[in-house]
Amino acid sequence: MSYISELRKLVGHRPIMSAAVVCILYDEDKGLLFEKRTDTGEWCVPGGALELGEEPEAGLYREVKEETNLEIKDPVFFTVKNNVHLVYPNQDEVYYTDLVYVVTKYSGELFHDEESVDLKWFSIDALPDNIMPTQTGYLEEFIRGLKDKDTTGTGNHKI
Questions:
Q1: So what's the pLDDT on residue 112?
Q2: pTM of whole model > 0.85?
């Protein structure tokens, strides 16, 4: 059982804080990979909460594998977003700190888990309408940077 699940047994739906990892998976030919969430029907990029004591990159590899069946390679840190407030349909409330990475190298065959009903590549010029609101800011920043050839979010290095 996950750390968050164990914590929820103790605190119920009350707000908690958690660190999460998010993967902007970009393929020059296919676009950005999104998953359609089972609980809200929104499109989002793969990611999720870190387990207790888990290193961010290890969590990123785990979350992407669990949610997409893909093995990622060489993630590059993009940005951090604080105070990402979510209230899930089951009324669990979380304030996340999202650690966002960009990945352009991957292998495997797409297959979604129970957290989503679909996985789909979208062109950066034709994104889905129903994107999870907490992710639109850094996705817009990534796309702007991509068009400007800076996809790190920091301006310090390029992918």
A1: 92
A2: yes
